[in-house]
Design brief:
The complex is a heterodimer of chains A (434) and B (166). Chain A is of the alpha+beta class and 434 residues long. Chain A is built from 22 helices and nine strands. In chain A, the strands form three sheets. Chain A has a four-stranded mixed β-sheet with strand order 3-4-7-8. A three-stranded antiparallel β-sheet of chain A has the order 5-9-6. Chain B has 166 residues and is of the alpha+beta class. Chain B is 57% helix and 13% strand. Chain B has eight helices and five strands. A three-stranded antiparallel β-sheet of chain B has the order 1-5-4. In chain B, strands 2-3 form a two-stranded antiparallel sheet. In chain B, a hairpin with a 4-residue loop joins strand 4 and strand 5. Classes of the chains: A alpha+beta (434), B alpha+beta (166).
């Protein structure tokens, strides 16, 4: 029997708080789960810094990857099985892509990517195609199998139904993370009737559509997505922690570039500071490693690096005020100058942050051929974009929602030195004059 | 601070307005691939390279009053037209220099159809491949659009033309 067709002697099950059980029968999937690169995902949190706001949000990308795999497994084994529009030979490639879709994520990956200009998708590709345990397992299926899995994840695979299951406006990735993040943060949003959505999914030509009878279940999903964005993903305090994290990495990088001698050599970071990193350097990092450095940097001589590290480790976060750049972008410049006069470096202590800086998005029907929207399959077999039929979706997707905040260390502005200028800063911030 | 927003305003101003979000997406992607320092992160989608970050940034710029957005209902979809407001011009001028080496880059891109820009952006997405593989990949991911050999040659020529302006 070929490796691709091999089944485990007995089905393995993982107990899961979101999907109850995750079922594994395929030898390939079992071997992939046990690979070093997939196990590494246990050491990377799904929600980055959100655990500093929602203390339960310590779940990892490993949990999420298993969850996405399980959703796709249910779709292809229970819903799409024997439907003429679905190609059964795609089963294994889509299951592997579901399990491996987040493989290239690094520690606190959003901030890490911004500071070091790396791309987790590129690392996913390198792990799939490079000298790794995952690549060795995929190669046992077929010589071109690693490339196929990489193409599905990169969304360049010829079969668009396969791509849609992993990455679209209503895909297994989003369906898992919304429910999982809701469960672990403890919020009451994020729940929707996934079983119903799965039952009304249909493969049609080059996409996956939803039978119109399932429109209300999809409305519920869109509402959950909307609520989770505002209540969890765009939470202003979690963004404060993210801002500090980004500034720690930026400071360490700038110090290294300026020739600063760290008391403890930042060995794990050197290849990133020098832009000479390779896959091995990247895989050596996880959140445990980063947190260890942040602990060490709390006692560094550089006052900015030590202060920012202490803020992150001990959760002494920045305060924030709402900020309207349309009216006040000039005042931001004035405020920067006042920070300098007060002896506080605005590059590290006065940070503007907007929702476009975050890696989450709302449902938008968009323009024709801009991005594939959610399509309903009408009883007449006509395909119709969701917001054209649903008043609820039309109402929330048509409204523009943006949020800008200005982050700053409030307690540094009330200590004794340079009182007058600090008072001036505080007054500007309190008046909403920025 | 807000420099990335200012770069987008500057581009739309130099292009003298842009008709269509898809077109805007592809133009910024093409320039980014040619080395212009736009920071928006792109991923491949069914219709080619797409940046959610750019979509969100455009919404923010409209919200700030620096861009004007006009919607045109085309029946089964809506088309979005963007232009820079007087406040947008002031904002752009206040936040520093243009990142485009030559304003012709913007006008040349804007003269092209969204179909042609989709073709060009997709070829650039696969620019790590040999030319024959690039074309093969284009036909796989964009099979339905039936790009002709002539169109593909024109796209490669256009990339070279833009490179000269960099």
């Amino acid at each position: 029997m070929s490796y691709a067709a091999q089944k485990l002697a007995e089905e393995k099950v993982f107990k899961d708080p979101v999907h109850r059980y995750i079922h594994v029968r395929d030898q390939v999937i079992w071997d992939l789960i046990n690979s070093r690169e997939v196990q590494r995902l246990r050491r990377i949190k799904q929600l980055g810094t959100s655990y500093l706001v929602f203390h339960g949000a310590e779940h990892s990308r490993f949990n999420h990857s298993l969850g996405v795999y399980e959703i796709v497994r249910r779709i292809v084994d229970d819903i799409f099985h024997e439907r003429p529009a679905w190609d059964e030979s795609e089963r294994l490639v889509v299951l592997c892509a579901a399990l491996l879709h987040d493989l290239g994520h690094g520690p606190f990956s959003h901030s890490f990517e911004k500071v070091f200009h790396v791309d987790h998708e590129e690392f996913t590709r390198e792990i799939l195609l490079g000298d790794t345990e995952v690549n060795g397992i995929l190669l046992k299926v077929a010589a071109d199998f690693p490339k196929k899995v990489a193409e599905v994840i990169a969304k360049t695979y010829p079969n668009k139904q396969v791509v849609s299951l992993i990455s679209s406006q209503i895909d297994a990735d989003r369906m898992d993370y919304l429910q999982r993040d809701a469960y672990y943060t403890g919020v009451s949003y994020g729940h929707f009737d996934m079983e119903r959505i799965l039952r009304v999914m249909r493969p049609v030509e080059d996409q996956v559509v939803i039978k119109s009878s399932g429109m209300h279940a999809v409305e519920d999903y869109i509402m959950s997505r909307y609520q989770m964005y505002w209540q969890v993903y765009f939470h202003p305090v979690a963004r404060s922690a993210e801002v500090i994290l980004r500034k720690i990495l930026q400071r360490a990088k700038e110090l290294s570039e300026s020739g600063y001698k760290f008391e403890q050599p930042p060995t794990h970071f050197m290849a990133f500071f020098n832009r000479s990193f390779n896959l091995k350097d990247y895989l050596a990092l996880d959140e445990g490693v980063l947190m260890t450095y942040f602990q060490l940097w709390m006692t560094e001589r550089d006052p900015i690096l030590s202060d920012l590290s202490d803020r992150f480790v001990n959760r002494r976060l920045f305060q924030y005020v709402d900020f309207d750049p349309g009216k006040d972008y000039r005042k931001l410049g004035e405020l920067s100058q006042l920070f300098r006069k007060a002896g506080i470096d605005p590059d590290y202590y006065l940070i503007d942050d907007s929702t476009s800086d975050l890696p989450y998005d709302f449902y938008r029907p968009g323009e024709e051929e801009e991005r594939l929207p959610i399509h309903l399959l009408m009883p007449t077999n006509e395909i119709k974009e969701l917001s054209r039929s649903s008043q609820i979706v039309d109402a929330i997707s048509g409204k523009r929602r943006t949020d800008y905040k200005l982050y700053f260390p409030a307690e540094l502005l009330i200590d004794g030195k340079k009182k007058a200028v600090k008072q001036q800063i505080l007054q500007m911030l309190r008046e909403g004059g920025v | 601070m807000l420099q990335e927003h200012a770069k987008i305003v500057d581009f739309i101003s130099l292009a003298e307005g842009v008709t269509g979000r898809k077109k805007l997406q592809k133009m910024i992607y093409i320039l980014k691939k040619m080395g212009v320092p736009f920071q928006e992160k792109y991923e491949f989608h069914i219709y080619g390279p797409y940046s959610e970050e750019l979509t969100a940034r455009i919404e923010e710029l409209c919200d700030m009053g620096f861009l004007s957005e006009k919607l045109e209902d085309k029946g089964s979809y809506v088309q979005y037209n963007y232009s820079v407001t007087a406040e947008g011009v002031e904002f752009r001028d206040a936040l520093g220099k243009s990142v485009l080496a030559n304003s012709l880059q913007a006008t040349k891109l804007n003269e092209k159809s969204s179909r042609f820009l989709e073709l060009t952006a997709t070829l650039l997405y696969f620019d790590h491949l040999e030319r024959s593989e690039q074309i093969e990949k284009l036909h796989i991911v964009k099979g339905k659009l039936n790009f002709t050999e002539e169109e593909i040659s024109q796209a490669f020529e256009f990339i070279e033309e833009l490179a000269v302006l960099m």
